[in-house]
Design goal:
Helix content: 10-25%
Largest sheet: 2 strands, antiparallel
Structural class: alpha+beta
Number of strands: 4
Order of helices and strands: HEEEE
Number of helices: 1
Length: 84
């Protein structure tokens, strides 16, 4: 995320990210830790960069601050490793 929002704001950005038009089709396939990591049961488009207009819940859109979120494919997870 650019600029670095800090932990408290990251949680809200991840919430807004799930609602973003480019991400919402994948929302039911993704999970995240609300800070840095996101995993998806479906491949996401690459490169995937979106701008999230951060606002506190219930705040007017005019107070939004833009954050650039880049989601980068790192590696595939092997589900078999979860049972060991």
């Amino acid at each position: 995320m650019t600029p670095d929002p800090g932990r408290g704001i990251k949680e809200r950005i991840f919430q807004l990210l799930e609602q973003h038009p480019e991400i919402s089709p994948y929302a039911r396939f993704i999970a995240h830790d609300k800070t840095d990591r996101l995993v998806s049961a479906r491949e996401l488009e690459q490169p995937l960069e979106v701008t999230i207009d951060h606002t506190d819940e219930g705040a007017p859109p005019a107070t939004a601050k833009p954050y650039r979120v880049e989601i980068t494919f790192k590696h595939r997870l092997d589900p078999q490793q979860l049972t060991k």
